[in-house]
């Protein structure tokens, strides 16, 4: 039931049918109120220096935008960065240091995105915390040179460089009429990045097999369609879903798949299962100007 609700919501925000368009129009008064509250919250915030350079990678809308691979590629240009994120979908609470040289917890405690960072960036510290300020303070105490704040645009009380991924949607209203959690306020300075302009995606498949079934638990999974080979079936779970081995075995038995095709975010939650997995590996080729801008900000802030 939850899976169907999530998929319905993604259609409502990004590919609405006639009924959903009418519903969106009827909800406009609530959308205007939501947007007003978000603006008041922003206008009353004062960005405070946290004693360490902070670079936020985010987007204005709900749903996935490709923040994780962008953070990974930028973090490779620093010797000891920290990645601080909320840790959506994790089974733990409070602040958790996921990685400091070694990985210190499992995926249930870290959340899937944090574990992808931990496994992809050997030189990085990874911290999850609902209170992002607490995670930043921990990164400072651990001697990190800078912080990448995952999904941090709305944290207006933190002094940072804001990078936003431009996500196309036919509906430009705030929640609940549209997908926008917040607007790009005219007085706020950001760097807007766009696919094919600022970055290019490269996709490869590790361990491909003849009969693959796509199984994934990411937001807006239709984003993968452009990169997929022929698959027997596409099976979508809600974002951050924790799979069980028996339900994945049932998919294999029902479809006759020779492997399950999964993303890196899915793989960290399946790697302990005795299943044949094909991994859809995504990397980004970044514009050199973006890398230079981030480096310049970090080093100027440190000095």
Summarize the structure in words.
The chain has two domains: 42-198 and 287-302, Rossmann fold, CATH 3.40.50; 201-284, 3-Layer(aba) Sandwich (Rossmann fold). The mean pLDDT is 93. It is built from ten helices and 13 strands. The longest helix is centred in the N-terminal third of the chain and has 16 residues, at 28-43. It has an eight-stranded mixed beta sheet with strand order 4-3-5-2-6-1-7-8, with helices on both faces. Strand 3 and strand 4 form a beta hairpin. It starts with a helix and ends with a helix. It is globular and about 60 Å long. The protein is an alpha/beta fold.
Question: What is shown here, in short?
Answer:
It contains 10 helices and 13 strands. With 303 residues, the chain is an alpha/beta fold.
Order of helices and strands: HHHEHEEEHHEHEEEEEEHEHEH
| Beta strand % | 15-25%
Second rung of CATH, namely the architecture of the largest domain? 3-Layer(aba) Sandwich
Q: Please, what is the oligomeric state?
A: single chain
Q: Assign the structural class, choosing from mainly alpha, mainly beta, alpha/beta, alpha+beta, or little secondary structure.
A: alpha/beta
Query: What name does the CATH topology of the largest domain carry?
Result: Rossmann fold
- Tell me how many strands there are: 13
Identify low-pLDDT runs: none
Whole-number tally of structural domains = 2
Main sheet attributes: strand count, strand direction, barrel closure:
8 strands, mixed
- Looking at the structure, what is the overall shape? globular
Radius of gyration: 20 Å
What is the C-level CATH assignment of the largest domain?
Alpha Beta
Helix content: 25-40%
């Amino acid at each position: 039931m939850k899976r169907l609700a999530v998929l319905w919501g993604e259609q409502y925000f990004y590919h609405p049918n006639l009924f959903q368009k009418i519903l969106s129009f009827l909800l406009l008064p609530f959308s205007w109120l939501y947007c007003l509250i978000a603006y008041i919250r922003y206008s009353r915030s004062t960005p405070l220096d946290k004693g360490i350079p902070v670079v936020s990678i985010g987007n204005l809308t709900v749903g996935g935008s490709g923040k994780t691979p962008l953070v990974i590629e930028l973090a490779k240009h620093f010797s000891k960065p920290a990645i601080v994120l909320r840790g959506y979908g994790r089974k733990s609470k409070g602040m958790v240091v996921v990685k400091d040289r070694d990985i210190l917890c499992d995926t249930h405690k870290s959340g899937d995105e944090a574990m992808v960072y931990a496994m992809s960036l050997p030189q990085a510290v990874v911290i999850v915390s609902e209170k992002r300020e607490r995670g930043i303070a921990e990164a400072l105490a651990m001697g990190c040179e800078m912080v990448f704040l995952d999904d941090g645009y709305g944290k207006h009380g933190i002094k940072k460089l804001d990078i936003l991924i431009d996500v196309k949607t036919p509906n430009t209203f705030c929640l609940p009429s549209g997908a926008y959690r917040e607007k790009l306020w005219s007085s706020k300075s950001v760097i807007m990045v766009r696919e094919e302009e600022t970055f290019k995606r490269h996709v490869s498949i590790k361990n491909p097999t003849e009969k693959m079934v796509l199984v994934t638990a990411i937001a807006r999974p239709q984003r993968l369609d452009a990169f997929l080979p022929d698959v027997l079936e596409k099976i979508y779970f809600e974002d951050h879903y924790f799979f069980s081995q028996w339900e994945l075995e049932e998919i294999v038995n029902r479809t006759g798949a020779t492997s399950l095709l999964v993303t890196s975010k899915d793989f960290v939650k399946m790697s302990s299962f005795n299943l044949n997995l094909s991994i859809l590996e995504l990397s980004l080729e970044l514009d050199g100007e973006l890398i230079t801008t981030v480096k310049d900000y970090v080093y100027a802030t440190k000095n």
